[in-house]
Amino acid sequence: MSIRELPLDYQDLPEVLQSIVTYWRALKGERIGPTWREVDMLKLPAELLPTTVVVDCITEDGSANYRYRFYGSGLRNVHHVELTGKTPDDLPVPELSRFIKEAFKRVQTTKQPVFSVYGSELADDFGDFLNVVRLPLSDHEGEVTKILAVIRYMKHDLALNDMFAKLSVV
Q: Which CATH number characterizes residue 18's domain?
């Protein structure tokens, strides 16, 4: 099984994710993004807080990486790992880690939000299982210093646990 990411346009996002983008846009104004301090996590839809992350953009040895400042409890349940204070490199599925880092890097370098759908290649179809919005935050003018990512799963947690377990074996 392989994971695939496809870009989405704002209008193709589920309404609940559109509401988060609208909130982010109101906070940011003309800037790249709001500061981390301006974001009130309690204004995000409560059902998505468990699948929300905030990462610090860091540079180590000249390469970009990302450290999880906040890692939602729902993600811990699916990935079977606590990543607060860790990086995507600590995920047990290298392919997923690579996708996540590439998406964070796109946000950091373009200074624009990234909207995606993730799925897996099936025999004759694309089985989508989550939507994600990744939004730049800027504590220093002109620079993406953090990224707010909100994930909306389309399948039940138990099905995702099974899928993740299969991916972890690979």
A: 3.30.450.20
Is the Cβ–Cβ distance between 142 and 32 less than 8 Å?
Answer: yes
pLDDT digits (tens, 9 = 90+) for 88-120: 999 888 877 888 899 999 999 999 999 987 666
For residue 47, give both structure tokens.
């059902």
Tell me which of 75 and 79 has the higher pLDDT.
Answer: 75
Structure tokens at 83: 């990543």
Q: Give the angle 141-146-148 at the CA atoms, nearest 5°.
A: 120
* Pick from 100, 50, 103, 78: nearest CA to 166: 78
Least reliable range by pLDDT among 8-12, 20-24, 37-41, 79-83: 8-12
Q: How far is CA 138 from the centre of its chain?
A: 17
Tell me the backbone φ, ψ of residue 90, rounded to 5 degrees: -85, -5
Encode burial over 42-58: b for 16+ CB neighbours within 10 A, e otherwise.
eebeeebebbbbbbbbe
Q: What is the pLDDT of residue 168?
A: 46
Query: Vertex 80, ends 20 and 152: CA angle to 5°?
Result: 20
For residue 149, give the nearest of 119, 117, 115 by alpha carbon.
Answer: 115
* Residue range of the domain that includes 54: 3-169
